[in-house]
């Protein structure tokens, strides 16, 4: 028995030394080789936090895509005679100071928040992948320049810079405001994901399969996009999942301050600001969108944490 087979037998008593491809004598089956993704999925299936957060994310996503399934009321149907009216059969959380259905506005507000969050995370991921790949693969002066740029952007407070940039945009068109918020959040929020991609690329480019591809004549572009990138995406996906919740919270904060989305767009941040001004007359117009926002942000952060724990071998 070779030294390698001796160590393998000590680590796994069920293993039997023999030629490659020989079936296990006891089980009569070839041993299964699990991948990192397979091990992660096995851990996720046993994690109740993953299922709770995934259920909340699916619920909010369905609410944003098909709000008519959750309420039959029109969020724009506002009658002043119903101002601050209490809960009733037609409006389970009552009406706000303009006589709008509080629950209907909270349901329809999920769409703008998710659009901003998902688009910001997607644009952030694109920037982070390109920048992190270039810095990690080429190294030397390319890595030094990009790292200094990342340090500069990291030193800029996100909300403060977002307020300054969005102040320069005077258009109140809903589509323009949404894309402006997406662009600002992505430009200011890509640095953490870029650092994660850079670290993964530095680790992956030292692997044997990269050396083999280089010896076979593959160019830098093919090695980066066909070999290194697929093996460096998992940590970035975890960071972007957590960042998605942060982007939703940032959009609500900017809209609350009157800098982000503006009426007639329905946003949780706008409704929270409106409810705050009239909370003495009625607390529900403030509590309902605040609860929807808190649960959504918490769901994405919990989902990202669960995925991170599953993919981290140190926590196994």
Q: How do you describe this structure in short?
A:
The chain is built from 13 helices and no strands. It has 316 residues and is mainly α.
Number of alpha- plus pi-helical segments: 13
Q: What share of residues are in beta strands?
A: under 5%
Please name the fourth-level CATH homologous superfamily of the largest domain: MetI-like
The figure for the number of domains is 2
> What does the radius of gyration come to?
25 Å
SS-based structural class? mainly alpha
Describe the overall structure:
- The chain is mostly helical and 316 residues long.
- It folds into 2 domains: 1-33, no CATH class; 47-315, MetI-like fold, CATH 1.10.3720.10.
- It is elongated, with a radius of gyration of 25 Å.
- The protein has helices at 3-11, 36-45, 48-65, 102-138, 140-154, 158-167, 174-189, 191-204, 208-215, 220-228, 233-256, 268-277, 284-311.
- Residues 1-26 have low confidence and may be disordered.
Strand and helix map with partners:
Layout: H1 3-11, H2 36-45, H3 48-65, H4 102-138, H5 140-154, H6 158-167, H7 174-189, H8 191-204, H9 208-215, H10 220-228, H11 233-256, H12 268-277, H13 284-311
Helix pairs in contact: 2-13, 3-4, 3-13, 4-5, 4-7, 4-8, 4-11, 4-13, 5-8, 6-7, 8-11, 9-10, 11-12, 11-13, 12-13
């Amino acid at each position: 028995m070779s030294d390698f087979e001796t160590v393998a037998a000590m680590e796994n008593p069920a293993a039997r030394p023999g030629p490659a491809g020989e079936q296990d004598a006891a089980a009569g089956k070839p041993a299964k080789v699990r991948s990192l993704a397979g091990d992660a999925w096995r851990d996720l299936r046993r994690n109740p936090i993953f299922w709770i957060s995934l259920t909340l994310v699916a619920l909010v996503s369905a609410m944003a895509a098909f709000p008519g399934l959750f309420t039959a009321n029109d969020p724009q149907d506002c009658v002043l005679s119903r101002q601050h009216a209490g809960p009733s059969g037609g409006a389970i959380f009552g009406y706000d100071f303009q006589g709008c259905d509080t629950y209907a506005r909270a349901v329809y507000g999920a769409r703008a928040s998710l659009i901003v969050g998902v688009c910001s995370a997607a644009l952030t991921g694109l920037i982070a992948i390109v920048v992190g790949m270039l810095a990690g693969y080429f190294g030397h002066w390319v890595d030094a320049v990009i790292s200094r740029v990342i340090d500069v952007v990291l030193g800029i407070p996100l909300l403060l810079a977002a307020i300054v940039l969005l102040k320069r945009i005077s258009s109140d068109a809903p589509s323009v405001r949404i894309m402006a918020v997406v662009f600002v959040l992505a430009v200011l929020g890509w640095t953490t994901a870029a650092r994660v991609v850079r670290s993964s690329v530095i680790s992956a480019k030292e692997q044997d399969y990269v050396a083999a591809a280089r010896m076979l004549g593959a160019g830098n572009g093919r090695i980066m996009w066909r070999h290194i990138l697929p093996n460096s995406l998992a940590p970035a996906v975890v960071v972007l999942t957590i960042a998605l919740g942060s982007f939703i919270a940032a959009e609500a904060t900017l809209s609350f301050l009157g800098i982000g989305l503006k009426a007639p767009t329905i946003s949780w941040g706008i409704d929270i600001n409106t409810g705050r001004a009239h909370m003495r007359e009625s607390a529900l117009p403030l509590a309902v969108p605040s609860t929807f926002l808190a649960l959504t942000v918490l769901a994405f952060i919990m989902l990202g944490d669960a995925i991170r724990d599953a993919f981290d071998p140190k926590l196994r």
